[in-house]
Structure formats: structure tokens, C-alpha cells
Description:
Layout: E1 5-6, E2 9-10, E3 29-32, E4 38-40, H1 41-50, E5 63-65, E6 81-83, E7 95-101, E8 104-107, E9 114-117, E10 128-131, H2 133-139, H3 142-146, E11 152-162, E12 166-171, E13 177-180
Parallel strand pairs: 6-7, 10-12
Antiparallel strand pairs: 1-2, 3-4, 3-5, 7-11, 8-9, 9-10, 11-12, 11-13
Amino acid sequence: MSSSSVGDLDISDLVDALTGAPLVLGSGLYQCENCRVFYQSHSVEVIRAENRGQCVSCLRSTIVPVTARREHQRGRNADVAVITLNNYQQHVGHVITFEDQVHTVLTSRRGSDYAVMFENKSWTRGFKMVVFRGAVKDIGGPQTLFNMVGRKVRVRGLLIQHQRFGYEIVISDRTQILNIQ
């Protein structure tokens, strides 16, 4: 078995549907039985916590572990929509790519979560990228986030509509920050 295959399943050209990072065997591999996209175990944890366990590509709850004994269809990469401030509400539950200037970075009341604000509004009313405390270190720490103020940032992440905090792009891995200008 090669380092990019499980049984007879070749994953060499495929990426994690949530983060866009190349798939790595040995770190837990999952596949959506409906649309055939793949996830690493960390991404499945985020999807379970933030997207009710629904696939970020097809919105079905059909993500299962990949095992050498289980037959899997050929996989595919997720289709990722490029969105704007004018149309983001139409893509809740999906992975999206978004680019705009950062107005400010806000720190949560507990001091461990961060909102990178794309609109000059409050945390609950503005469109934002959110980095939860468990991912802050992986992103590069708080200073990396504060250094984004005034810069154009392109991100790939899960778009959710939180009941209390509104529309958010959830970021859990440094690979999801595609560009900072």
C-alpha cells in the first residue's frame, strides 16, 4: 500500500474538503458516502461541532471512516464557491472562499477566541472569520490575527450562521488562510 492510497483507493490528488490541505494517511481519513469528498479526523471534529455533522459539500450527514476493508468509490475534491459580502448568506453550511479587507480583530470575552471582522460592525452583526481557542496557536497565535488589520485576506472555511453571533467563517487550520496582502 503506497503512502497515498488505502487499499485500492488512490487519494494522491485529493484534499481535505474543509481545509483544502492535502490528505495524509494515518491521521484518520473519512469520506462522505453521498458526494465522495474526503476529510481528515480534525476536520470531522469541526464539522460535528459547527455544522451538525453535515458534509460541507452536499450538506448530508453521511461522513464515515475510511478503512482498508471497506469499499469506497473514487473520491473527488469539494466544489468551493467564491463568495462576496453580497451573497454569503446563500452558502451557509458549505466551505467557501472569501476575500476582503480586515477592519478590526476582536477578542472574545473569555479572551481566547478571535473574530477577524470584514465589516465595521459588532461581533454579533458583522461578517467575520472566527478562530476558536483550540486553533489559535495553529494559525500562528493572536499576533498573526492582529497583523491582518487593514490588509486584504483570502480565506477558505466553513460558513455558519450562529444563533447568537451571526454569520461566521470558521477557521481551524493555517492552510485555510490562503493569502494576506
